[in-house]
Structures are given as structure tokens and as C-alpha cells.
Design brief:
Length: 198
């Protein structure tokens, strides 16, 4: 189960970065397309904290950071490579996948800061409250998704467009996904108990 959660966590991180290129509008809020699956990563990270411990989950954060950096670097490399004459989608490829360096820096910086913050907040809550996984997830995500939204938007868009509506929009969507993902904590715990009893 732990290996599966690690795989899903890394996959969600990468999917979020690829799909972030398209903005989406929902209930008057605008956010990158990756916001839904990215918000889920904070819950997954907290669940993995229970299995890997503090040191292990920090290592996972650094691993996902390297994976995201590798993805961004390789896309940039392929986008810069010359295409054969028959390939007519070079501009579309660059437009969809070739994020500007500012967006890449914003994404990687926000991820590293917010994920490490989530790990620390969750660890402190775990020390103080032995029970209540859902409340620890909710509280740690409340803090870390706020920081993530603010850091990303400020680095990516400050001076280009008003940042406050973007920060609030992203934060609202991330918290909605966090609340919707809380049953995942209990499903993961039930699956873990079933495996241990088998």
C-alpha cells in the first residue's frame, strides 16, 4: 500500500505540472488546470507521513522535487530540439508544454516550500494529537496550501496581473479538494488494517 501511495503521489505531482498550462474557470474562480490533482498531493503526503515517518516523507518531497525538475528540464530540451520537416505541431507543443522559466521557478519553489511546511506542521500536530488523522490533514493542508498558493502566484504573476484574486481562487479550490479527499485517509487506514490482518 505504501509503494502504491508513493507512486500515486509522484504521478499526481507530475500530472499537475503538465496540466497547469491550461487555466480553468469554476464558479467565478480561475486557477491552473493542475490545481485539483495538486491539492490532493497534500493529503497523500500526510498519509505517507504516517507510513514513512518524518525523515522518510521529507526524502519523498525532495524526490518529487527532483522528478518535477527533471520533467521541466526534459520538456525544455525536447522543445528546443529541431523538429523534422513533416512535424507541424512544434508551436502547439511549445505552447502547451513549454512553460516559461518564471512559471517553472514559481511551481518548483512553491512546491518545495509548501510541501516541507506541510511535513513540519503535520509532524507537530501528530505529536500533540495522537488521534484524529482527518483533523491533522485538514489543519496542515489549511496552512500549506495557503503558502503554496501565495508563493506560486506572487512569483509567477506579480507585476503582470492582480495576484490576490488568483491566490484566493487557488486556495478556495485546494481547500475544497482537501475536504473532499478526507475520506481517502480512512480508506487508506482500512486498507492498511486489512493487509496487516491478512
Amino acid at each position: 500500500m505504501t509503494s502504491l501511495l508513493i507512486g500515486v503521489y509522484i504521478a499526481c505531482e507530475l500530472i499537475a505540472n503538465v496540466t497547469a498550462a491550461k487555466p480553468v474557470a469554476l464558479f467565478g474562480l480561475v486557477a491552473p488546470g493542475g490545481v485539483f490533482i495538486y491539492a490532493l498531493t497534500f493529503t497523500l503526503l500526510d498519509l505517507l507521513h504516517e507510513r514513512l515517518g518524518h525523515k522518510g516523507v521529507r526524502t519523498l518531497v525532495y524526490t518529487a522535487f527532483i522528478a518535477n525538475g527533471l520533467l521541466a528540464g526534459y520538456i525544455a530540451f525536447i522543445a528546443a530540439m529541431p523538429a523534422p520537416p513533416f512535424y507541424s505541431n512544434q508551436d502547439a507543443f511549445v505552447a502547451v508544454l513549454g512553460s516559461t522559466p518564471r512559471i517553472v521557478v514559481a511551481s518548483l519553489t512553491a512546491y518545495l516550500i509548501s510541501a516541507l511546511l506541510d511535513v513540519e506542521v503535520y509532524a507537530r500536530l501528530r505529536e500533540r494529537f495522537a488521534h484524529g488523522t482527518w483533523s491533522r490533514i485538514l489543519l496542515s493542508n489549511t496552512v500549506s496550501t495557503a503558502v503554496d498558493s501565495a508563493v506560486f502566484v506572487v512569483i509567477a504573476f506579480a507585476g503582470i496581473m492582480p495576484v490576490m484574486p488568483l491566490i484566493l481562487g487557488q486556495y478556495a479550490i485546494k481547500m475544497a479538494v482537501t475536504v473532499a479527499s478526507l475520506p481517502l485517509a480512512y480508506a487508506a487506514r482500512s486498507a492498511r488494517r486489512s493487509v496487516s490482518q491478512a
